[in-house]
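One-letter codes give the sequence; the integers encode the fold. A sample entry reads:
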Amino acid sequence: MKVTVPTFQARSPRVWGLSIAIAATALSWFVGAGTVWAQTVPGGAPGVMVGSGRLHPYVQADSHYVINPGYNTRSGDDVVLVIRPGAELDLPSDKLDLKGHGELEYQRYLGLNNKITQDYSTLAGQLGLNSIINKQGALVLNLHETLVRSADPGQIQPGVRLRHTTNDVGAGADFRPGGGALIFTGQYSFFIDRYDRTDNASSDPKNLDNTRHMPGVRVAWKFLPKTAVFAEATGLITRFPNAGTAADSNLVLAYLGASGNITPRISALLKAGYGNTLISGSDNFNSFVGQAEFNYAFTETTGFRVGVLRTAQPTSLLKYFALNRMYAGVRQAFGARIQAELNVGYDYLQFGSPTENLPAQNNRTDNDLVAEANINYQVTDWFNVALANRFDKRTSSAENIDDTGTPNQSIDYHHNDTFLRLTARY
């Protein structure tokens, strides 16, 4: 649940662009809109033996045609070339199961219609390690570490760079007495997000720095082999160390729910509960939260899902936003090697009051429509071809604010990304 939140001292047009951008980025961490953006690689290649495990090196090459790469009302189209070498490590064991991954990514914007977009070109990457200790025992321990360097302008408003580095480290434990029908889970993650310092006079990137403490507990009872009821609670303690006007919050979400198979063809997730941002001396999100999702398998090759979600996240500039989402998706396999997928989502965002006395921001609401389609062809066990398209259109009741605090333009936008991805994995 990684959410990056801005706060600014200068009230420039870029301020509200960043606010929209970061809120939009946060949404993708709640419910995946689809698999098109997951950089999955073919899974049938043998790899290189490393002790009892295997190392899988891979390389991906993308060619994108992007409409409105800056996510604003003025930028033109561009072509983006991406190269992404990486490797995955799998060391399975009942006592210590390790999975690691690492990759570098270089994005090159050609600046076909606007030379400014060439500045989006960047080098990024990530490293991650997940371990499971005592996998078959009554007490199972989980550890994870993920370091990400990112400068993806996919959610960036008016030409603003958001180069930043995140680190997420955490641990968890599952206690399964009596064979595993009853499972007690506890977990904790610490997330830190640090932005590059720049000479941009209209905004100070250090004000976006934030830390997150994320504890959680869960109790689940499997009353059927593939069906369980559960109670869970999570916390999100958010701090903005360099932003004096930020609204630090202690978000608490608690749920009761059930998940699993209803019939051999129908599975569902149902949970309902309560959330509160617990912001001191301020208005709070204090409301119902929940999620309902149904999956239906028409055949072994055709599936459908539909769902609704209501939750909340803290932000600094507008204290919090409530996310109300509806989403649906369909997948279709054509033989063993071709898979297609279509996903559509609609978000209605309700923001809290501003942390500063800014016009055009009280009672702010946004609407966001996202549609994604992709088709994947696994040519061989080691080579995959994917063609995808993503459309995103946002409208907002708010407006950009100039340096005098006056609304001066709409922050609505539309964006489209069409790309071809080639993946080779040994």
Remarks:
- The two ends are 32 Å apart (CA to CA).
- The longest strand covers residues 53-67.
